[in-house]
Write a structure and sequence with these properties.
- The structure is a homodimer.
- Chain A contains 13 helices and 17 strands.
- By secondary structure, chain A is α/β, with parallel strands linked by helices.
- In chain A, the strands form four sheets. In chain A, strands 2-1-3-8-7-6 form a six-stranded mixed β-sheet, with helices on both faces. Chain A has a five-stranded mixed β-sheet with strand order 14-13-15-16-17, sandwiched between helices. Chain A has a four-stranded antiparallel β-sheet with strand order 10-11-9-12.
- The radius of gyration of chain A is 28 Å and the shape is elongated.
- Chains A and B meet through helix 1, strand 2, helix 2, helix 6 and strand 10 of A and helix 1, strand 2, helix 2, helix 9 and strand 14 of B.
Chain lengths: 421, 421
C-alpha cells in the first residue's frame, strides 16, 4: 500500500446540512488519523444525494491519499453512499452472500425477521475489502484506486469508531507514517494582533526549519492560543522540537504567556495557590459568579477556593463586603476604590489569603462617556495589592469572559510578588 | 440579482481541521439561509492554505447560487481568504482608504496604536461590495460573478452574524424566495427519551399534514429542545401552523415545557420575578456561581437579582449564610436541611423575596454509596418553600449545568404557588 500522508473526510447525511446538527464523527477520525501521521487537508458535508456525493468523492480523491466517507450505508432509499462510490470508481455493486447471512443472523438473534430493505446493506463494491461491523448491520468497505484509498464507514459513531480501530487503523499503521505531535501556548491580556506581531517573526522561521513546525492562532475572549504541530518521523525528536519552540514563544510573550502545556488559566492559578497552601475568596459584580465558576472547574479546587459574594446590588456590596456606601456614592460602583474595598472585604470576611474584587459595566446598558460599556476595575488583595482598569471590547458575554480571564491573570501575576503575611 | 436557491458554506481555518474544533458558524448561517428559502447543498472546511481554499471556492461556485466563506479575514499571514477569493474571481486586491481609517479609529478609540499588520484587513477585492463590521476590524465582502454570489465573512461568530443580518440578509430578501418558518419548544427536567416518547406520536402526524412540519430533537444538560420547521409559500399560514403545533407539544409536555418562543429558562424566570416586582438571592455550593451567572445573562437583570454567596467551604455556609455547623455535621453538607438553611439564610441576609440554595456533589471525587456523584439538593425559600433531591448523570460540568437548570426550574414551578408574604 502506498504511504498515506493526507486525508479528506466526507460526511454524508441531509440532517448534517440543517442548523441543528454537526458532523462530530470527523473529530474522532481526525484524532486517529493524526496519531497515524496522516494530516487532514479538508472535510465536506453533503446531503443524501447520489450525484452530489459522487462529485464530492471525486474531488476528494483527486486531492488526498485517503478519503473517508461516513454515513449513508443504512438500508433505506436515501442511503446512497455505496451507489455513489461504485459510480466514482467505475465498478459494480454485488450482493455478498456472506454479508447477507451475517445480517440475517443478526436479526434472528434478536428474534426478528430481517426486513427486506436490509438486503441493500449486503451490497459490496466489486473488489472492495469488507470491514466487519461489530455493532451494526452495515459493514465498512475499503477500496484502493490508483494508489489512493477510499474507505466507507457507517454514520453511527460507535460503529464507525469500532470499524476504524479494528480494520482501518492496522492497514494505515502498516504504511508506517510518522505521527503528528502538538503543543499549545496560551496567552492572556493581549489582542490577537498584538500576539501575532510578536509571534510571527518567530514561527515564520519554523516553516523552513527541520522538522517543520506549523502554527495556528486561535482567539477567544481573554485567551489567545498558539497551536504548534509537527509531523515527526521520530516522535521524540518532534516533541523536543516543539518543547524548544514553545519555550521560545513563551519567552517572547512573557509575561502574557501563562501556559505551554495546555493547562487553562484557572488550573495555573489553582496550582499557584495550592503550592503555597493559600486560599482565595472572590467578590464579583459584573461577572456575577463566572469567576468563581471558573476557579471551581478544577476538580479538587475546594482545597483553595473558599467561596465568595456576588454583589450585584450596591447595597449588597455595603452589607456583605463592608464597602462604605459613601465610597460608592463618591467614586461610583465601578471604580478603583470600590474594587479594592470589595477585594479587601471578601478577603477579611472569608478569612482568605487572597481576595479578588471585580466591578464593571458589561452592557448593553449602564455605560457613560467617562465609563463606557466594557469598563472593568479589578483588584487583588493579598500580602501585596494590585488594581487595574480595563476596557474590554464586545458584547455583554464577551466583556464578562474577558473580565474573568483578566482577574485570573491579575492573581497569577501578582502571585510573583506575594510575600508572607 | 438572480434568485438564490442553493448555497454552499466554506469554513476557513486550520484549527477547524484539528480534533478539537468544529465549524459552528455554518449552523448560524444555515438557519438564516433556510429562513430566506435558500437550501444548503453542501459545506466544506479547509485550512489556512491559499491554493486549497481557492480550489474549494471554485468548486462551490460551480455548484451553488451563493457561496459563503467564513474566516481567514484576520490580519495575519495565515489569513488567506481575501487572496484566494481574488485569485478565483481573477481580480486585484486594493487597499481601501476608508476601511483603513475605520480600522485605525477603532484602535484609537481604545487608546491603542494600530499594529501595521492590520493594514491587510483594509484590502478589498476590486468591485466587491463592502459589508460593514460593527464589532471588528475586518469588513465582509460581497461579489457577483456570472450571476452567482460570493460572500466573505470574518470567523468570529458575533461579527459574522451581525454582518450577515445587516448586509447579506437584505440583499437575499430582495430575491424573494419562500422562507422556512421555525419554532422551538424547550423542556427541562425530562430526559431526551422521555420527551421523545411523548412527542413522537404527535409530531409523526405532522409529516402527513399540510403544511408538512418537520421536528428535530436536540438535547443538552438540563434542556431538551424540539425544533419545528415548515417551508411556507405563505409565511403567515406557516407561522399559524407552527403556533398550533408548538401549543400541542406544550400541552402534552406540561409542566416540563417552559418556553415555546425560544426564550431560555433564565429569561422565563426573570420575567416571572420582574412581573411580580420580586428580587432573588442565591446561595451556591457545587454550582459555585454558575446559577448567578445564568440569571445575570439577561440584560437588565440587576432589577431582580440582588446577588448571593458562593459557599464552597462549609465554614462559609455557617458564617455567611447562618447554616448551623451542627446541622452540617449531622445531616451532611449535601442534604435537604442544609439546602433549605442556605436558601433561607441568603433570602434573609440579602433581604430578597426569593432565596435559592444549591448543594451537591459535582465530582469527580466526593461521592459515596449513599450520596453518589451527581447528587444535588436544591431548595427555594419564598412565601412558600420547596426542596428537591436530584441525581444527575454526566461529568462535573454536566452535573453543574443540570443543577443550574433544575434550580431555575424549581423557582419557575414554585412561582405558581407563591402567595404574598
Amino acid at each position: 500500500m502506498a504511504r498515506v500522508r493526507t486525508a479528506e473526510i466526507v460526511a454524508v447525511g441531509s440532517e448534517l446540512l440543517t442548523p441543528f446538527r454537526l458532523d462530530t464523527n470527523s473529530l474522532v477520525i481526525t484524532e486517529r488519523l493524526n496519531e497515524l501521521g496522516v494530516a487532514l487537508t479538508g472535510k465536506s458535508v453533503v446531503g443524501d444525494d447520489r450525484s452530489r456525493l459522487a462529485t464530492r468523492l471525486r474531488e476528494a480523491l483527486a486531492r488526498a491519499d485517503l478519503v473517508v466517507a461516513t454515513g449513508g450505508l443504512g438500508p433505506t432509499a436515501d442511503d446512497v453512499t455505496r451507489d455513489a462510490a461504485a459510480e466514482v470508481v467505475g465498478r459494480e455493486l454485488v450482493e455478498d452472500p456472506a454479508v447477507l447471512s451475517t445480517i440475517r443472523e443478526r436479526f434472528a438473534r434478536r428474534g426478528v425477521r430481517m426486513p427486506e430493505i436490509n438486503r441493500r446493506q449486503a451490497q459490496v463494491i466489486a473488489g472492495a475489502a469488507l470491514l466487519p461491523n461489530p455493532y451494526g448491520t452495515a459493514p465498512g468497505q475499503l477500496l484502493e484506486i490508483e494508489g489512493r484509498l477510499l474507505v466507507l464507514l457507517p454514520g453511527p459513531t460507535r460503529e464507525m469508531q469500532a470499524i476504524f480501530d479494528e480494520s482501518v487503523r492496522p492497514r494505515l499503521e502498516r504504511s508506517g507514517a510518522p505521527g503528528v505531535e502538538r503543543r499549545v501556548v496560551k496567552v492572556t491580556g493581549r489582542s490577537e494582533s498584538q500576539v501575532e506581531e510578536i509571534a510571527h517573526p518567530i514561527y515564520a522561521r519554523w516553516l523552513d526549519a527541520e522538522p517543520v513546525i506549523e502554527t495556528t492562532i486561535l482567539a477567544s475572549p481573554g485567551v489567545i492560543e498558539l497551536h504548534l504541530s509537527t509531523l515527526a518521523e521520530d516522535a521524540a525528536l518532534g516533541r523536543e522540537a516543539l518543547e524548544r519552540a514553545a519555550r521560545e514563544l513563551e519567552a517572547a510573550l512573557a509575561p502574557a504567556a501563562f501556559s505551554i502545556d495546555g493547562r487553562p488559566l484557572e488550573r495555573v492559578v489553582g496550582k499557584l495557590l495550592h503550592d503555597r497552601g493559600w486560599t482565595i475568596a472572590v467578590a464579583e459584580s459584573c461577572t456575577a459568579g463566572l469567576l468563581l465558576a471558573r476557579l471551581t472547574e478544577v476538580p479538587g479546587s475546594s482545597a483553595w477556593v473558599l467561596g465568595g459574594v456576588v454583589a450585584y446590588a450596591d447595597d449588597v456590596k455595603t452589607r456583605h463586603l463592608g464597602v462604605p456606601a459613601s465610597l460608592i456614592a463618591s467614586e461610583g460602583a465601578v471604580s478603583a476604590a470600590v474594587a479594592e474595598a470589595m477585594a479587601d472585604g471578601v478577603r477579611e470576611r472569608f478569612g482568605a489569603d487572597v481576595g479578588v474584587g471585580v466591578t464593571g459595566i458589561a452592557g448593553p446598558g449602564g455605560g457613560s462617556d467617562a465609563k463606557p460599556v466594557g469598563t472593568v476595575w479589578i483588584a487583588v488583595s493579598a500580602a501585596n495589592r494590585a488594581r487595574q482598569r480595563y476596557l474590554f471590547p464586545g458584547d455583554r458575554q464577551a466583556v464578562r469572559q474577558h473580565a474573568v480571564a483578566a482577574a485570573l491573570d491579575l492573581v497569577r501575576r501578582q502571585s510573583g510578588v506575594w510575600v508572607p503575611t
